[in-house]
Amino acid sequence: MIDSPLTVPDYLKAITIKDACYLAGKAWGAVTEKTIANCWNKALGAALPQPQHDPEEEDFLGFTEAETRAAEERLEDHLDENLTLRDWVNRWSAAEDDMAPAETFTEEEIIDQVVQEEAEEEEPQPTVAAKSHSDAITDFFM
């Protein structure tokens, strides 16, 4: 598909209904139950009971209108009538390579962070001097 010598518009024009059905089936197969639930929750909002969820397991909820509009404008800038599909994919790949990751940690930094978190979780136990039996009995009756 990427090795096609056709331009992007010509490639899209060459897709048959059968190809479109296979592509749609493949795309639908990649949709998870969680994605569908998030879609309904986003569309109907307060009309549906909100599920309890762990924020760390949150799926992508979609783009805002502003993000979508900005992406469409950037796409129009990159869409050239004579651009081959391979060149188009390479442009997007190069753009992704230019993006800095949010943060990259070395193994040492990860280990240090885990050790520090474990140390913060451990509460120091107060040290109490041991009493002799006679002192304990005296303190008990006094």
Describe the global form: elongated
Q: How many alpha or pi helices?
A: 7
> Which secondary-structure class do the elements indicate?
mainly alpha
Secondary structure tally: strands = 0
Distance separating the two termini: 90 Å
Residue share in β-strands:
under 5%
Write a concise synopsis of the structure shown.
The chain is an all-alpha fold.
Question: Mind explaining what this structure looks like?
Answer:
This protein has a domain at 8-102. The model has no long low-confidence stretch (mean pLDDT 75). It has 142 residues and is mainly α. The chain contains seven helices and no strands.
Produce the secondary structure layout.
Layout lengths: L7 H7 L2 H13 L3 H12 L20 H14 L6 H14 L8 H15 L11 H9 L1
Summary tags:
single chain; 142 residues; mainly alpha
